């Protein structure tokens, strides 16, 4: 929750339009440059120099202090771009540095350069270096009021760099081959450009072209790199062949089930530049066995848990595909659509002996890029093979198969046209086609985001149609969203309306919880971004929500769902500590989803929430983040709930750090769905105690080699105290008994230990150990300590794997062959 409020402080703008636009001339060199961190070659003397950097935050407009200035130079040749310089420091102890691995932020100072190669002020490429020589890079999008705004650090390019740290600061050099960036074929080009430097111990951040946080957008305030001449996009062909081996152990008393198993695999990832702007990414025989384990939980809600995506192919370069929030990549290779149906199709004396939990991905590919006229095109396609559960006859031993997921093709097409004034229009189509008698699905959407000339006011919207094709019928659904507001100035506001009818469903390739609603939201905010005596930044926020059903359900008379009023105050102190105070009030609400039966609803009473979060200064050796939110329901069941968490980190040195997170989520006298008996919807008054412990250790040997260890234990206990029948009026009537035991006690225990070595540019060796355990019983009254011991002593699924990925670049190979001959 706290991240939302911090983001609100970072976007939006001033009523004073940003008019400063600096220019830096393009300087071509023909001299040889060695990337060694020393800017002592003659070529650097003729390079273009970035003049004075201006403070971006906390105090906009100030120049860099004497002795801490940034000296930076830029030039190019036929092969790529050179960026180098010196980040001066009066005191070397003022440089914040930590080895964190590729694209790991940590608490590092950094220097970075940003290229808007089509000068559309909406899309850019970023390249960063830290004082210890670690690289970050990302694709950046500044389109506001859409879900793809921000930086995509999953995108990776291969480029060279070197840093030298000494008592006067740190010198750096980077070389960006043209294969690491996208641009047009024009003979003479002008790119948008900026450089930025951040000093973490003071949280001072500087940019070359001034960037006022009170102006909407970072790229709207870039400078210009002019006169770039005769550069040609090269043939971009990069191969990433891999080889992996897995050894798995799971103890079993069944003599027919092997305790040990192994697997060997090989495959290929490919990147091909099919034009100067577009890239084909493909993965053949993909292997995602080394990704981080999911944070699984006991789900007591009526909605599916949404998991993070850790598979590189689906996290890298997907900013176009995430437009409108219609794409949930975990659907591809996710749970079979009929995974649970097998249990409803068992014959007498049959049992399920194998039921796959995920579908096997055969291959996936995507094409993405943007033309010089600003048209972004994204095409993604993936194929999964059919999955079958195995059913055994207990008497004869005969085994038969039941199809739980047909062979499926997933496709996504996005067309995104950038317009003037930070605006854009977008079309998206998502399609899922299955073999056999299973249904197919399609979703199409049109979106727009329009800003005025002063980049102050905006209007945005999207409309979508869903189509599910069953054997005997078609199901058509409609949804739209509309918003307008003011995103510049100290005073900002926004209004949004979302409407979804009863038949809309985008769950086949998106994350979908419910339809049938009309929701109105309003936001008002006022902020102070000029540091004062007691704070660096301060913002007040007010959020309002009112939601009803789009269409009545059955005989239910009411359409009202819920409403909310929420206020918050967020500030950054002079000690660089974030503090936020939040409270909200929710009047009586009608929950149409908790009963899990159409035509029923549950009436919840008024409730109030108060909360506070504190985020410490991460540049310190030890820092702590914490939050606590408490909600009180004014019902007969007298629910009291709070969420409390602490996240603390201690850095022993630049190589070794320890992070510990603990979360406690108790629910006293909660009421929720428990089951169905004899046609009655059963609710229970219950206590729910949930604990989560995560320990993360990191040791980086060098800026190319590191070891991480992450262990997580999650325990949730449900103790039901009394039971009720849910009436047609949304109220509960006491029930004397139930047939089943609805208490729950669930544990998830995981270990992920990863050794990574980047032994050559773009090439990696990974060794991973994963350990997983799961227990589920009705002993809800045992303590957390007993649950932890039981999890440690339960059967563990251990997996050890080794994977080698080798980077092959066509241009590098061509150059090597030429030199050899």
Entry keywords:
821 residues; Immunoglobulin-like; 24-stranded antiparallel barrel; nine-stranded mixed beta sheet; 53% strand; DUF5916 domain-containing protein; signal
Written description of the protein model:
Among the domains are: 2-229, Immunoglobulin-like (Sandwich), CATH 2.60.40.1190; 236-274 and 277-308 and 754-770 and 786-821, no CATH class. The termini are far apart. With 821 residues, the protein is mainly beta. 5% of the residues lie in helices and 53% in strands. The chain has five helices and 45 strands. Strand 19 and strand 20 form a beta hairpin. Pfam families: DUF5916. InterPro entries: DUF5916. Keywords: Signal. This is DUF5916 domain-containing protein.
Distance between the termini: 60 Å
The major pleated sheet works out as: 24 strands, antiparallel, barrel
Q: Number of helix segments?
A: 5
Sheet/helix structural class: mainly beta
Looking at the structure, the CATH topology of the domain at 2-229 is Immunoglobulin-like
Mean pLDDT: 91
Measured as a percent range, the helix fraction is under 10%
By DSSP, the count of extended strands is: 45
Oligomeric form = single chain
Give a quick precis of the structure:
It contains five helices and 45 strands. The protein is mainly beta and about 800 residues long.
Task: Describe how the helices and strands are arranged.
Layout: H1 2-10, E1 23-25, H2 42-45, E2 48-50, E3 54-57, E4 70-76, E5 80-88, E6 110-116, E7 123-129, E8 135-141, E9 150-152, E10 160-166, E11 169-177, E12 188-199, E13 204-207, E14 223-229, E15 237-249, E16 260-273, E17 278-284, H3 312-315, E18 350-354, E19 361-370, E20 375-384, E21 387-393, E22 399-405, E23 408-419, E24 423-434, E25 440-451, E26 457-469, E27 474-486, E28 491-500, E29 517-528, E30 535-548, E31 560-573, E32 578-586, E33 589-591, E34 602-604, E35 607-615, E36 622-633, E37 640-651, E38 656-677, E39 680-702, E40 705-726, E41 732-735, E42 744-760, E43 763-777, H4 784-793, E44 797-805, E45 808-809, H5 810-820
Parallel strand pairs: 1-14
Antiparallel strand pairs: 2-4, 3-13, 4-5, 5-11, 6-7, 6-12, 7-8, 8-9, 10-11, 12-13, 12-14, 15-16, 15-44, 15-45, 16-17, 17-19, 18-21, 19-20, 20-23, 21-22, 23-24, 24-25, 25-26, 26-27, 27-28, 28-29, 29-30, 30-31, 31-32, 32-35, 33-34, 35-36, 36-37, 37-38, 38-39, 39-40, 40-41, 40-42, 42-43, 43-44
